[in-house]
Amino acid sequence: MMPLVDVVGLTKHYGPKRGVIDLSFDVVDGEVFGFLGPNGAGKTTTMRLLMGLLFPNSGSARIAGLDCWQRSVDVKRVLGYLPGELAFDPNLTGGQILAYYANLRGGVDRAYLERLVTRFDLDISRRFRHYSHGNKQKVGLVQAFMHRPRLLILDEPTSGLDPLNQHEFAQLVAEVRGEGRTVFLSSHILSEVESMCDRVAIIRDGRLARVGSVAELKDIKHHEVDLTFTAAAPIEAFRAIAGVERVEVSPDGRSLRVTVHGDVDPLIKMAACYPLVNFVSREPSLEDVFLRVYRDDGSPREEPADVVS
Amino acid sequence: MWFRSVFLKTLRDHRVAILGWGLGMGALAPIVFVGVTKVLLNSPDATNELLALTRNPALRVFAEPVDVFTPGGYATWRLSMVLPLVAIWALLIVSRTVRGEEEHGGLDTLLSVPRSRLRVAMEKLTAVAASLLLIGLLMSVLAFAGAMAIGLHLAVGRALLFGLNTSLFALVFGAIALVVSQFTSEARTAAGITGSLLGLSFVLTSASRVVPGGEWIGPLSPLHFFERNKPLVAGSEVHSGPMIVMAGLAGVLMALGVVLFTRRDIGAPVALPRLPRSERRRHELPLRAWSLKSVVARNVSTAARSALWWGVAVGSYTMMLTALLRQLQRNLDDLVGDLARSNPLYATLIASVTRGGNVTVNMALLNLVFTQLVVMVAAFAITTANRWASDEESGRLELVLALPKPRRRVMLAHFAATTLAVTILAASIFAGATIAAALVGMQLHTSRVAQAAIGMVPVGLVVAAAGYLFSSWLQTRAVTGTLIALVLASFLITLLARLFQWPDAVLQLSMFEHYGAPLVDGLRLPRVLGLFGVAGATLSAATVRFARKDISG
Q1: Number of domains chain A contains
Q2: Distance between CA atoms of B332 and B46, rounded to whole angstroms?
Q3: Residue A208 sits in the same domain as residue A263
């Protein structure tokens, strides 16, 4: 089956400055795809390339089989878009802005639009200039969802939303997915991505560092194991275990925090050789995966660190 | 160094404008000095033309010719309508520096640092004043250098006074903009209102010269105080009083503006009593509102509103100047009455140019007003191009371009609205001139006035289209600056090229030359069509470029 979004070797430079480099990934119909990366990593550039707002230096981006630059008008018929920096005419009210974009889009179900306004508890009588950041974001979200697009491209959609509206947004995304529509979103809130997205791409310095399902990314077998012994344990013995990346030792030498990549069985067997009073093992969250990608580029350290806490 | 204080940072922000306005305006005096000595005073043709100009009574409406056969006198006379335009920069920058930063949220961050509002405002305004003084200084230096180049004795003190006089005048309008911007939500509105007051200042000064017993009107206008000193005119008296008045006025208005600024909500205008609005309607989705039906309708709604304000201002200006011209004729009629008793032949000669019933003469007089009005239409076109550039720069185009509409169509929709707005402005000029003429009993060729108004439309479109094209590469401020330079250069070519016998090719570069004098000669269709052609070609280039460029965001 042809992917809905198909990005191959996409590269964009801003003069001498890096935008994104050689991105390749795809998004299939009906999935929620998360795009993670810190500020300046290239998330917004990628989304604006998909929207046909930027011209790629090389590579291609296709949506529904159509080139995002050459066929941008047709591409945008299937899209709803929320930009990272929302800007409307500051003198229009929220209602006027929504009416304007509903008219420009055409075919917007008024009842559905009003329902969205109610769900986000948006006061449409105020001028855009007088909205708080969160309320501006609500206007942007409603205009992105109101025509029930096949694909939603949302740049930091929960930015500025309060927890109640974040929850409402998550429900809306779930409904969209339930209807077989697709969402491509970027976010800094990793727990949110973890709970909402089927697959995630992590972008680092303009390059794609990881792509996979949330489960796959979390399955990169990194475990953090806390061990507490009755007496100081032999650190070198633990460092020598295959797969151990890092050993942190408490000042009294009795507690170790061991980071393991891969199988934890040798570690548990080694720990069992000493009088153990406490044992805690943690699965990595998506946040751990993300931080690891950014700290370590995802590859195991050659020299295990020795950090005294 | 430049980021150590609000003052230095603001001054740094103005560095390009200081150089641009200082060198641009400053270059005018040396250009005129050199032209006057090389051509005007050495060529009988040019001297005769100048003589004819000074005898034209309509020119008194705009400026008092004093000692015009000397380089300093001629420069003072011809530049008296141009130098005060530094006030445009002052009013724009003050509006942007305070209200503009509030609009974009930048002031919130600035005021989060442990500095009082008063201090922040004072540092910003001091930087504006310092920038104006630097612009004045550059003008002084260039005027002094120009005088030296032609061997003219211009004392350093007089050269400095020349710049200082201009700076103080501009500062007054900066201060007015500060006060006005305390009552508006947008910097653009404050700048528009203050710009209208600048226009009114010109009218009041003209009225004080023309209306019998109207000397009392002069002091109502800051321009009156600017014109009291003519430092470039050798031997003219130096008046410190008018300069003290301008400095005092600027100081008082600045203080008022700062007091209002420190006592109001940031991001909101000074609270005034307002009529209650219908809340019920505001809570409904206005899906059927005509202005929200399409990109064209939305742009037309925005542009038409702005054009109507400009139309009211420029139309009123046209009416007032037309009325002043008629008043000038009446003054000369009185003179004819006196002269008839002593020299009947001379009286007949003057009477031929003063009777309101002489349509040809009236059209010639009004033509001088229209040469200014066409520049105003060009200025309006700059604001529309500025809006397009700022829409893209601020990201307001992003969501429109996320719609399934070709970029070309979005730009053309905006330009269509601009065309309508320019046409509204031209129509208001036509209405202003014809209504005022009817009211004051001045006969005009209505069809010629209509032709002159129609001829302004392509001039506005050329400027707007150039702005759309420039915005493909330049930021909003640079687009505005480039267009202002383009219009000023064009205006100066028309103003000076013939007198200084510049090559015809230079003259043809001026769009105002192609506009011509339609009140006198009628509309020159090939030239007008040529302007439409230039506008069309420039717009085509702009759409092609826009369709292929990265949208800034």
Answers
A1: 2
A2: 26
A3: no
Distant-in-sequence, close-in-space partners of B62: CB < 8 Å, separation ≥ 6 = B80, B81, B202, B206, B368, B372
Best B292, B295, B390 residue to mutate vs chain A (most A CBs within 10 Å):
B292
pTM above 0.95, yes or no: no
The rounded distance, in Å, linking the Cα atoms of B325 and B442 is 9
What would the two tokens of residue B115 be? 């500095």
Nearest CB among B401, B404, B553 relative to A77 is that of B404
Q: How far is CA B517 from CA A73, B47, B373, in A?
A: 46, 22, 12
- Picking from A183, A215, A247, the residue at the C-terminal end of a domain is A215
Do A91 and A240 share a domain, yes or no? no
Asked if residue A284 lies in contact with residue A224, where contact means CB atoms within 8 angstroms, the answer is yes
- CB pair distance less than 8 Å for A95 and B550: no
- Residue contact A124–B404, C-beta within 8 A: no
How long, in residues, is chain B? 553
Reported as half-sphere exposure (CB side, CA atoms, 13 A), residue A14 has a value of 15
Interface confidence: ipTM more than 0.85: no
Q: Which residues of A162-183 are buried (b: 16+ CB within 10 A; e: fewer)?
A: eeebbebbeebbeebbeeebbb
Q: Are A277 and A166 part of one and the same domain? A: no
Q: Give how far the C-alpha of residue B275 lies from the chain's centroid of Cα atoms, to the nearest Å.
A: 34
Cβ contacts (< 8 Å) between B400 and chain A: which residues?
104
pLDDT along chain B (553 residues), means of 10: 86 92 90 78 70 65 77 85 88 91 82 84 96 97 92 91 96 97 91 90 86 86 93 90 96 96 88 66 77 88 88 90 81 66 60 58 81 92 91 89 91 95 95 91 90 96 96 90 91 81 88 91 91 96 93 75
Contacts of B289 in chain A (CB under 8 A): 96, 99
Query: Taking a contact as any Cβ pair under 8 Å apart, which residues of chain A between 149 and 178 contact chain B?
Result: none
A133 and B CB contact within 8 Å? no
Q: What is the nearest CA distance from B332 to chain A, expressed in angstroms?
A: 51
Domain boundaries, chain B: 1-268, 290-318+356-553
* Backbone angles phi and psi of A299, in degrees to 5: -95, 145
Are residues A66 and A187 located together in one domain of the fold? yes
Residues of the domain holding A97: 5-215
Q: Are residues A25 and A164 in the same domain?
A: yes
In B160-275, the DSSP E strands lie at none
**A247 and A270 both lie in a single domain:** yes
Q: Are residues A13 and A86 in the same domain?
A: yes
User: Do A16 and A117 sit in the same domain of this protein?
Assistant: yes
Could you tell me the two tokens for B174?
A: 């900066």
Domain final position from A215, A239, A258: A215
